[in-house]
Amino acid sequence: MKNLLKSRNTGLIAVLIILLVIARFLTPGMFTATSLVSMLQNNTIYALLAIAEMMVILTGGIDISIASQLAFVGISCTTLACSHPGIPGIVWVLFAIVLGALCGALNGFLVGYLHMVPMICTLGTMYIFRGLAFVVSGGQWWFAAQYEELNGYRTFAIGQFLGLPIILWVTIILLVVAGLFLGYTSAGRRIYAIGTSRESAAVAGIKEPKVTFYSFVICGAVTGLAGMLYTANYAIGYYGMADGFEMTAIAICVLGGVSITGGKGRMDGVAIGALIMSVITYFISMIPGMSVWQKALQGGIIIVAVAINYFTEQSAKRHALKERSALI
Predict the structure, then answer these.
(1) Percentages helix, strand, coil for the chain, rounded to the nearest 5?
(2) What CATH number has the domain spanning 30-320?
(3) pLDDT at 4
């Protein structure tokens, strides 16, 4: 019980419950089965991007190009699918994952092997991918009418399985798989090792460029999948879509306990953080005149979460130091 009370996830769950109680009284219409499923479905892209971003943040890096990658992959899938409507949807899922992985490989090569600063590098590729999205689309927008013939394409987002949209099942599966990968595989533990201490990781024989490279590749693959699902779920595609989504993904990661300096964070915390962000976003959208505060609120969440993470880490260090001093 003592460990449970000290757990950060316990605090996050408490915050989630408080938010739900407040929302219940202010927006009772939010608490129908249809509304809750709609809330999760419309915010699941943020969760997917948070999974992708976490892979890079854990190494001590950051990728601010993921929203542009999403737009580039989503537009590419839409353009090709509209030209070849008879191709099964699973083909576009695989195409999106591969194209996204290639985008991530570019970032991984520049950061891992050419030792560029992640923030500056991904700032540059952010504009590159956004520009490619414009080139591929030719400035054209796609709306629901163009997606009417793409039933197979949209199935992986709006199709139903056991009463829930498939896009939710995809997100849940990815959360579980990513959590198992990070916690129970040597490749996942190397990501934590790089973010915790590059010097110690090097002494242990871990090759930092290789780990950095494949963390960006995984990030890109998940982002690419999110790009395809974005267009399939919302039935809209244009080169400027998902602008600013990278900040929401980072906010979810930090809120979920992922250290912005790397080496610390759990997938279950990110899942709870995604739920909190979904409730906040949906809750604000249902209150007249409050939607203009959404970005400001997200910025405040990032600042508060970073501060909490900092003080938590400092408290843990002081506690460890006291324990060591008591043993001497």
Answers:
(1) 80, 0, 20
(2) 1.10.3470
(3) 47
Q: Which residues of 43-67 are buried (b: 16+ CB within 10 A; e: fewer)?
A: bbbbbbbbbbbbbbbbbbbbbbbbb
Q: Are 73 and 45 in contact (CB under 8 A)?
A: no
CB 54 within 8 A of CB 265: yes
Tell me: the pLDDT tens digits for 72-108? 999 999 888 888 877 888 888 999 999 999 999 999 9
Q: Identify the band that residue 326 occupies on the pLDDT scale cut at 50, 70 and 90.
A: low
Per-residue tokens: 217: 């590749």
> Nearest 5°: CA angle at 298, between 294 and 300?
115
Residues β-bridged to residue 164: 161
Check residue 5 and give its pLDDT: 45
**Whether the Cβ atoms of residue 220 and residue 69 lie closer than 8 Å to each other:** yes
Q: DSSP readout, 59-99? A: TT---TTHHHHHHHHHHHHHHHHHH-TTS-HHHHHHHHHHH
Q: What is the mean pLDDT of residues 210-238?
A: 93
Q: How confident is the model over 26-44, as a mean pLDDT?
A: 78
Residue 259 to residue 265: CA distance in whole angstroms: 6
Distance, first Cα to last Cα, the chain: 29
Query: Per-domain residue ranges for the chain?
Result: 30-320
Q: Report whether pLDDT(118) > 90.
A: yes
Which residues pair with residue 165 across a beta bridge? Answer: 160
Amino acid at 7: S
Q: Find the helix packing angle between 245-255 and 66-83, rounded to 10°.
A: 130
Neighbours of 290 (CB within 10 A): 12
